[in-house]
Amino acid sequence: MAAAALNSAARAAMEQLNGEAEAKGLHIWLRTQANAPAQRPWFADFGIAAGGALAEGRVGKNQMKAAPYRWPWRDIGSYLDRIADIARTADVSPIEFADRQQFLLVNPGLGGRLQVASTIRCAVSIYNPGDVAPVHMHAPNASRTILSDNGGYTTIEGERCKAARGDLILTPNGTWHDHGNDGSTPVVWADILDFPLLEFLDCNWIDEEFPGEREGNARAQKPIFGNGHSARLYGQGGILPGFVAHQRGIGHMTSPVFHYRGAAIRAALDALRGEMGDPYEGVWLRFVNPATGAAVFPTLDYAAQLLRSGEATRWKRETANNFYIVLDGEGTTEIAGKRFDWAKNDLFVIPNFLWRRHKNRGPGDAVLYLCSDRPLFEKIGQYRAQGRTADGQEVVQLVA
After folding, report:
1. Which of 132, 148, 209, 245 fits a 20 to 30 Å CA distance from 66?
2. Are 399 and 383 in contact (CB under 8 A)?
C-alpha cells in the first residue's frame, strides 16, 4: 500500500521546528521529504536522450550532475603557451607558488569543481626546458599522457622514464615521483587523477619530505633504475619475474609497470586493425597490472582504441564515467543524442548512464586513449552496461 501523504499541517509544523533548530545553529534537519536520487532507473529507460534529473528541495539542492563536454585543443592549447611565457619571464616560476604550470578542466555541470566527472580530475601541464617539479608522493592515483613530441621525464620509485608523444606514464598512489624537462623544447602532457574520489573520502594527502638521496638542488630523486626498467621486467606477456616484489611504493593494488610507450601502443593497435574488433569499442587494448591481470589502479582503468576510417561503433552506455584524449585522427562522438566533433589533442568526457557512439570521419585511423572509473564501480557492485543492436532498436545487456 502507498504510504499516506504528509498533511500540510504536519509539514508546516515540522518546517517550523526546522526553522527553530536552524536559528539555534543546531545543524540538524527534520525530514520533510523523501530521498530523491538524481538518476532515474537508467536500465529501464531506453531513450537516447540524457536520463535522470536533479531532485528538488532540501534533499537535492546540493546535487550536481556532470555534463558531457568537449575541450577543443584549438581553443585551450594557446593558454599553455601563455603560461610558459609567464614562467620564462617571471621572477618567480608558477611551479614555486602553485606546484605546477597547468590549467585544469572544469565540467560545466559540476558548479566550478576542478573535475571532469564525479571521480576524475584532469589537468594539462607545460614544462619549459630545465623545469623540474619537486619529488613528492600523494594519495591519488595519477597518470600522464604525453601530448608533445618531447615528453620530458618522470622518475618513479627510482625508475627514470624518458617519454615521448603517446606515452602513458603511471604514478600510483604512494609512489615517490618527480617530473622534469631535460630537452630543448617544451613538454606538454595531460594529468589524470582520481583526486575527487579521495577528496570526497577525506583521504587526500601529499608528502614532500623525500627520505632518500636527492639529485642536485632540484629536489629530484637520484635515479636507481634506468629508463625501461619495468619494461625489461614485465615486457614479456604472461611471464613474471620471480626475483622482485611486484609492489612498488606504499600503495596497494597498483601496477608495478609505470611506463607504456606510445610507439608500442600504436604498433599493437596497428597489428590488430585487421581483426573484427568490438562492435561497441572498435579495436581496443586495456592496460593491466601484469602481476594480477587487474586494472592498473584499483579505481581507474586505462585503454587505447583504434577506429578505422569510416568505422562507427554501436550505441553503448554504462554506469562508469569515461574520459577521452584524442591522440590521432578526427571523428564524432554522439552523447545522449548530442554531437561532439573531435580532432587531435581534443579531450572529452562521457558521464555515466549516457548513451554514446563513436565514428571516425577522417581518411585515416583514429586513436583514442580512454580513462574510466569502471574498476571502482565493479568493486562496489554497481558496474552495468547496455548496448543497442546494429539497427539501434533493441537494447541488450552487456554487463548485467
Report:
1. 148
2. yes
In this structure, whether the domain defined by 70-399 belongs to CATH 2.60.120.380 is answered with no
The DSSP-derived string for 137-201 is EESS-EEEEE-SSEEEEEEETTEEEEEETT-EEEE-TT--EEEE--SSS-EEEEEEE-HHHHHHT
Q: How many CA atoms does the CB half-sphere of 189 hold within 13 Å?
A: 28
Query: What's the pLDDT tens digit per position in 205-236?
Result: 999 889 887 876 667 888 888 788 888 888 87
Q: For residues 294 and 252, is the Cβ–Cβ distance under 8 A?
A: no
Three cell numbers, residue 123: 589537468
Distance of CA 163 to the CA centre of its chain: 20
CA–CA dist 369, 76 (Å, integer): 19
Q: Please state the domain extents for the chain.
A: 70-399
Q: How far apart are CA 31 and CA 11, in angstroms?
A: 9
Residue 236 CA neighbour count, 13 Å, CB half: 5
The residue whose grid cell reads 575541450 is 71
| Cβ partners under 8 Å of residue 218, min gap 6 | 132, 134, 180
Name the grid cell of 249. Answer: 611504493
Q: Distance of CA 334 to CAs 136, 329, 352, 359, Å?
A: 40, 17, 14, 9
Residue 119's identity, in one-letter code, is: T
Asked whether the CA dihedral 272, 273, 277, 280 is positive or negative, the reply is positive
For 107-130, what is each residue's pLDDT tens digit? 999 999 999 999 999 999 999 999
- The pLDDT assigned to 118 comes to 95
CA distance readout (Å), 144 to 125, 190, 264, 278, 282:
9, 5, 16, 26, 24
Q: At 236, which helix (H) or strand (E)?
A: none
